[in-house]
Amino acid sequence: MSNSHLFMKSGFIKTPGQNGVGRYICQLQRVVLKFCKNNGSSRGLRDFIEKELVDFAKDNPGTVVYLKPRRHRAPVIIAEYLNGERQYVNCHNYTSEEVSKWLNLLRTQAGNNDNIRLRKLWHTDHPSIQGPWTPYTFREPALNLVDFPNEELSKPLYVEPSATEKLLEIFKEQQRNLNILEKNQRE
């Protein structure tokens, strides 16, 4: 086991200002796209700038986008968040789609530093040896091979009879009882 976690900062997971309780505030404050106008490794970032950057800026009005052309340098995306954190993504030989996916990921993150040892608010001397429970813990393994949507699995396990069906059952039971009484009276 490694002891490298001893030198990492420790802390708890924090949501900035209870984001999402009242309304969502995008934590991404600024994006700087650094690229070379001539270098082939910046082609994907240049394609993204030409085709998709205007749509990205329209969809995210709270995020400022800066373009910084640099000669003979590798393409980089720098994301700056409201809490002051920065994240760097090296986009060397990325396609336009990969750049778009990275920007979407950076836009949806809260800017927390990933190099943090998470501490918990609880402690136990006897942790479970079975692992954490998930909604898929007791599912049948055969469901892994099923194509969804599946009509057989969509059926409910128990269908409660409707009021009409219940009345019909009561009526049929009364008819049976009457037939039995008539039969007994004849004998």
What's a quick, concise take on this entry?
The chain has a domain of 87 residues: Glutaredoxin (3-Layer(aba) Sandwich), CATH 3.40.30.10. Helix 1 packs across helix 3. The chain is built from 5 helices and 6 strands, in the order E-E-H-H-E-E-E-H-E-H-H.
What do these coordinates show?
This protein is of the alpha/beta class and 187 residues long. The chain has a domain at 26-112: 3-Layer(aba) Sandwich (Glutaredoxin). 30% of the residues lie in helices and 17% in strands. It is built from five helices and six strands; from the N terminus they run E-E-H-H-E-E-E-H-E-H-H. The chain has helices at 43-51, 53-59, 96-108, 151-154, 163-186; strands at 9-11, 28-35, 64-69, 76-81, 86-90, 116-118. The strands form two sheets. A four-stranded mixed sheet has the order 3-2-4-5, with helices on one face. Strands 1-6 form a two-stranded parallel sheet. It is elongated and about 110 Å long. 10% of the residues are buried. The model has no long low-confidence stretch (mean pLDDT 84).
